[in-house]
Amino acid sequence: MPKASAFTSAILLAAGVSRRMGQLKALLDWHGRSLIIHQIVALREAGADEVVVVLGHRSDELQARIGANREVYELGSVRWVINSDYALGKTTSIRAGLNGVMPGVGANGAIMMLNVDQPRSAGVIRQALDAHRSASGKLITIPTCDGKGGHPIIVSRSLCHELIAIDEQTQGMRAVTERHREATQRVELGAPELLWDVNTPEQYQAALRASGAG
Q1: Burial of 154 by CB count in 10 Å (0-12 exposed, 13-18 middle, 19+ buried)?
Q2: What are phi and psi of 85, to 5 degrees?
Q3: CB distance 96 to 87 below 8 Å
Q4: For a Cys-Cys bond, which of 35, 72, 124, 158 suits 107, CB 3.0-4.6 Å?
Q5: Before 152, cis peptide (omega within 30)?
Q6: CB of 126 closer than 8 Å to CB of 132
Q7: pTM (two decimals)
């Protein structure tokens, strides 16, 4: 296990219904893998010491996919939690994920948060994580492309007590970043994939083309 101060947990949010896509986004093909498997592997290869996948809609099916995947099994340190309140908003999934991260590994560690429908490469995730780890006195790192904020957002574990209290009424994560504006860094990485968000078939196809698929 890495030193407690360097331990990084990743929360992958995959509980939604995918209404606008018309099919479950977690199971979309991404370079020969389902999107959920791609995201898990990318997060682990980028330096996450554990990945906590938050499931809700069709959780049994996704659990089976994750559990049966040899690549995920060999990587290890991947588990899932079930958010039965996923229909109430994304903040319920963030809280479920936070409750699932490994306890007792040091307040100076980091937590990365990414949605399953935001496909990212391990290289870009690693750049964001390295920027967070190397920043002195910063609690939150937001990677950007051409000045626009992207994902994954990375936060210090010392903020867990604040994150666990977020809700939809207080604008979720935004309230935390606003509260700690001076301790938040925006890091320009110049990687368009930081802004990919595949909510619709058109966005999915555009992201595939931009990633070099097909």
Answers
A1: buried
A2: -105, 20
A3: no
A4: 158
A5: yes
A6: no
A7: 0.93
